[in-house]
Each structure stands twice: as C-alpha cells, then as structure tokens.
Amino acid sequence: MRTWEKNVRTVVPYTPGEQPKFVDVIKLNTNENPYPPSPKVKECLEKMNTEAFRLYPEPACDTLVDALAETYHMDRDEIFVGVGSDDVLAMCFLTFFNSGKPVFFPDITYSFYDVWADVFRIPYECQPLDKDFRIVKEDYYRENGGVVFPNPNAPTGILMELSEIEDIIRHNQDVVVIIDEAYVDFGGKSALELVHKYDNVLVVQTFSKSRSMAGMRIGYAFGSKVLIKYLNDVKYSFNSYTMNRPALELGKAALADPAYFEECCGKIIATRERVKKELSRLGFSFGDSMANFLFVTHERISARELFEALKIKKIFVRYFNKPRIDNYLRITIGTDEEMDQLLAFLKKYIQEN
Amino acid sequence: MRTWEKNVRTVVPYTPGEQPKFVDVIKLNTNENPYPPSPKVKECLEKMNTEAFRLYPEPACDTLVDALAETYHMDRDEIFVGVGSDDVLAMCFLTFFNSGKPVFFPDITYSFYDVWADVFRIPYECQPLDKDFRIVKEDYYRENGGVVFPNPNAPTGILMELSEIEDIIRHNQDVVVIIDEAYVDFGGKSALELVHKYDNVLVVQTFSKSRSMAGMRIGYAFGSKVLIKYLNDVKYSFNSYTMNRPALELGKAALADPAYFEECCGKIIATRERVKKELSRLGFSFGDSMANFLFVTHERISARELFEALKIKKIFVRYFNKPRIDNYLRITIGTDEEMDQLLAFLKKYIQEN
C-alpha cells in the first residue's frame, strides 16, 4: 500500500440492483415504474432549448421548487431538491446527524442508511422489526442522534399508521426525524401534515417511482424553513448547481399532469392487489405491501433458488443475502403482462420442483 | 435554539455568481461559454426517448465514460464522472483528504476549496501567491495532507508550466495531488500525461466552460485505476446514480464534435487576446490569462466602483471582496459583440470619471 492510500476514506459502498443492458428482459428488480413518464414530459423535451445549456442552471432550482410548492401546497422555503432522493438523504445525514450519538433506523430497511452513516462516520443502531416485519415504535423512544425510516418500509412494503409515526416524532423532539416516503404514492398516507406541526421533521419523496422518472434523478424534501435552510447551506457547500436544466424543466412538466400520475399509480395498485392473490395461491406469503413491490417468501422453495431460476429466464427480481431476509424476494410491480409472465413461470417452476 | 439544532453541521456556503433572470443582460460573471453547445447536442436531444426515463441511468455512467475514454485515449477505469467538476472535487476532498494534516492550496484560488475543507472538517493551509499572482512551488514541498490547485489558476487565469507542476508532484508522493483544469482548454497544456507517470495525481475537467454545457452539470477526473476505484467507492456510498440520462447522452454527443469544440475555444482565445490589448490601452493591468476570463485592475478607478457602474448598465462581471484581490474584477470572455459593448462602456466611464 502506498502512503497516500492510508489517507483514503475507505467504505463498503451500496450495491444498486443490476441494470442489465439487453432489452428483452422483464425488469422487476429496482422498483422502477413500468409506465413511461407523462406525455407532458415528452412535449417539454421537444420544446427544450439546447442553446440555454451553455448557462448554469438556477442554483436555487426555482423552476422545480415552485412547481413542487404549488403541487403540494407548501411554501417554497419548505422545499429542498436533489439528484434523486439518495442525494437528498445523503445531504440530510451529513447535515443533521452530528451529535455523536447513534442514529436509529430499522434492521430491515433501505440498505443505503448504514452506508451513509459509514461514509460520514456517523454512529448508528439498528432497531429490529418484529416478527411480522413491523417497526416497533417504542424502540425509538430512547436517546439517539436522529431517526430515519421509510414509510412504507423497504423492502417489506409495510406501511405505518400516521398516528404511530407521530408517536415516534413526539418522543424525538431533540433530534431530526426523517420519513423516507419513496413509495408513499402507492396507497400510503404521507406525513406531510406533520411537517407543519413539528419543526424537526423531514419528509423525503422522489420522482423515481410514482412519477416514472428514475432516469432523471429528482428527489425532494419537505421540512420547516429552518431545517431546509440548514440543508441548503450544506448543499451549497458541496455543489452550487446540482440539478441540471433538463431535470428542472422535465420535473416541472411531470408535476403538471396530476391525472396521468394518479392513473399510473392506480394501475400499479390494481396490479399489485391482483398479484398478491395469485402469489398466495402459489404458496407465497408476504406482508400487506403498500408499495410498488412485494416482499415474498415461498413455503417450500428457497428465495435464492427462485432468484437464480428467474434470472435464467431473464426475469430480474431482487434478492438480499442478509440476515432475516435471505429467504425473501423483492418483486417490483410491472405491467399486467409482465406480471402474468412472472406468475406463469413461477406456477410452472413450483409444479415441477 | 432548539436542541436538534446543536447537532447541525453549520457551514459558510460558497456563493456562486449571480444568475440574473432577465434576458437583456451581458453576462460575464460566471465564466460560461458565449457560444451554444455543438449542434450534435441538439440533434441528440431531438432523438432522445423520454420513455426510457422511467428506468434508472447506468450507475457506472458507461455511455459517457466510454466516450471520454475514446476522446482522451484513456482506459475507462481511469475516468470518474460527476455532476459538474464541483461534484467531482467534493468527492475527491471527501475521499482523499483524511490524514488530519492540512491540505495545501493557494490563498488566491477557486473559492470553493476552503468551503469543501470546512464542510468535511478537513484542516487546510493557504499558500500565498507571489506579488505577480504566481504559485510558488516550493511552498508545497512541506509535509501536508494533500495538494489542490487550478491550472490555469482562478480567478487569475495564470498558467503554470507542466515542469513546475511535476516538481510539486515529485515532492508530494505521499499524498493525493489534484490539478483542477476547468479552464485548461483555452490555451493551457493539460497535466493528463502525468496521470500515467504518478498514481497519486488526479486531473479534473468540466463540460461547463469549453464545451458550453454549464447547464448540464458534467465534470470528470482522470487518475490511476486505484485512485478512480477509491473515488467510485465513495461515490457509490453517496448516490448510486448521479448522472441523469440526458447528461450521459448529451455529454457523449458533445464529445463527438471535436471540430466545433476547437472552433469555439479558438474564437474565445482570439477575443481574449484582442480584449487584452484594448484593456491595456484603457489603463487596466492583468496577468497573462490563459483562461476564458481576465482578472483586471485599473490604475485609477476602483474595482468595486466599476463593478457597480457596470451592473447598472446590466453588464455583470465578478467582484470578490477578499484580501489582496478586492481591487480586481474577473471578466468572462463573451462574444466579440458583448466585449465591444463592455469596452465602449469602460472607455466612456473612464473618460468621464
């Protein structure tokens, strides 16, 4: 090892789901939306002026922030935007979790939380979900350096009641509490109203799932003005201009089509509920997911075996080789046609094995 | 102050140049390129498929990395890309400057270096430029935690010879040395060849200046495979997908038009050299800038006065209220027409005052 290597911040990075390059796959492994973005996004792209690309984008991202303010009835000073909700959450960890006390999050949750904690040298403590994969709210009542959890939780899909979330917030008035709502539009209830009641609460959402724009990298957070100010100060200390011009403009265009947004979410919810029934019949069990994925385990055949068998058939789902969940598959809800192909394969495989 | 506020990472953020919203301004304050991006960028945008936006972009940014590899005759494992060179440099600070010893950079330089050092709690020590605003290479021969400087330097525009840069590198084999080449395409010589000779050297460049794509946020770094691997590990611990689909595709399109790139750089260099002569005649003095801006001081009229007078005429230049440079203006090289309007105003103002 060379001397300079001793000064390197070494980390174990997050492993994203595979992004296979060939086209004839059924891709149910990274919770993308099976439907394209709103036609308004296409219209906006067609009108986009490339000459303006020579100029920096708006540092305060006004175009997008104003559109979010209008859509969600918030003040523009209560909104922070970033390069996907991962960027938003990374900035939150960097900004708010500096007490030296451990940050609390569930043991089974979005697997980026411990990665951010590690990269920023933030201590953390995982709170185990109960046997039904539910968050035990009392575990979060002890002294800590901050709280973060997704609602619905990932990869379980299980939704927590707003009243329970408020209980956690009430017991954590001295730290920042982050509610990661990447999947809330598929049947959950947002904690947005709590942002007005508690100045230490951040609600984080994304365009990657319900708005079909994972490829555009747009995430955002709602919080009190004082929280958002701190977040922006750190953002401006990292990169003045994070959102490029197409992200700002196309993000705004997507928000301008609420009917399409609701239609897509409705279709995914309908498909999810149908698939739940079909998978039950095939011997799978799972929690009552309110997200655009299911987290399933089979009564007889191991998750790893199914994962490998599906992959050979070019059906990609997500398998986590981690304690407590190594016999589960996370399956994104695709189109009805994609799900029918998945179900047909599973039915045949289970009969034959 | 609420208790949770005590845990906030407080910072003094970088202040970017103003981005005025009205259109009839002459904008010479943020070193943007006055010419639009290559027509190939427009063609690429017109062909872009918005349906693909529903899918995450390539985590390893292959499209863009491969195009950079081809353009610069590098191996793809020697290239890192980010959301503008600010993102690349921020990641470099976070990854490589962890020794606890002070990082060295010039006292007059890109004013984001001390901001990154502060946000990541990295100690630093500024090395004064000499009276002609030149880097004194011997100042960098002492023990340190890393070295970073722009070449040409900003906001002075002064270029350092490659042999001098190599002297600094030779004396700093135990730390990472970063050469920030945001402005190198306007007449400088890149240190790219030194990347193959020294495994601790990073060369950082951007699409924001010479490729007319500040609004797209694309930056990149060249370095040894081991350096790039460390950088990517930290990047993947921050945000798996930093570059959105348009950035990857349009960046590649811009690289596919070297003739246009050289033409634009040539025009800016020609304008710069002409403006140097005209400004000399008006009583301005300045170093021999090799960037797309000039850093000028007038023999009689204060920089602040000129800055304010120009602003009233909707000509925006950059003024830094900082020690040693508070009587200087940084003026971006615009089109010939824009520079003629600037020169006409300055001539009249100087005659009348």
TrEMBL record, chains A, B:
Enzyme nomenclature, EC number: 2.6.1.9
Write down the chemical reaction(s) this protein catalyses: L-histidinol phosphate + 2-oxoglutarate = 3-(imidazol-4-yl)-2-oxopropyl phosphate + L-glutamate
MF annotations from Gene Ontology: histidinol-phosphate transaminase activity; pyridoxal phosphate binding
Name the record gives this protein: Histidinol-phosphate aminotransferase
Q: Subunit arrangement?
A: Homodimer.
Mind telling me which Pfam families this protein's record contains? Aminotran_1_2
> Boundaries of each Aminotransferase class I/classII large domain copy?
24-344
Lineage: superkingdom: Bacteria
Alphabetically ordered keywords of this record = Amino-acid biosynthesis, Aminotransferase, Histidine biosynthesis, Pyridoxal phosphate, Transferase
Organism the protein comes from: Fusicatenibacter faecihominis
